[in-house]
């Protein structure tokens, strides 16, 4: 005789089925919660460990004197120009240079348009670290004394050591406009231009004219010695080649005076470099 399922037994089976499914769902939720809790615990552990890691990293990579280079990839490798937020490497090697150069200071260039000051670029000044040996006469002098003493900057220019000015544009500028502004500062400083000076200025001009200079473009004006300098331009990281060579003592001297003479176009740059030199010579 067959067994006939009663409505009651069917209800029990249905209830058991539902209970089993609920149990599985709860187990799944519990498992998920456990996994999430485990992940949260792991994250908390990693997060709590991170500051210690950074402290160790900073300790290993820090340097006592900021113009010197530090390890690649560390936060210590850069100095930030505070007004423009432009980063400058503390040490770099440029095409055409035989040695690494160290950052001495940074500032920015502001151009007055009507009555509004417009920031055009940030600038950092680099020099061969051996420059210290030529400046012993200023050892122990304050940054204020160094800034006021034009003979110190004359000594830096005359030293047969590589030094470079890195310009980082903070707005789009066409090449002709950039050169016109530079020429406007250089030309009055050359009282009686010679043919060699005119040729050098022409080379300088042709390097910039017709070239769009986008925000972020790097321009390096590098003095190899008092009589010669090179120009390198790049819109994609550090330059890999020299764009022009300028052979004229009058032009190279005038350009140096534009930034480090008694009326610098970027007072903040000269102040920062003077502070860097005071630290170097302390």
TrEMBL record:
Pull one GO CC term from this UniProt entry: chloroplast stroma
Q: Tell me where in this chain the Chalcone isomerase domain is found.
A: 85-277
Name any Gene Ontology BP term: fatty acid metabolic process
* Organism domain of life: Eukaryota
One GO term in the molecular function aspect is: fatty acid binding
Name the family the entry cites. Answer: Belongs to the chalcone isomerase family.
Q: What is this protein called?
A: Chalcone-flavonone isomerase family protein
**Organism (species):** Papaver somniferum (Opium poppy)
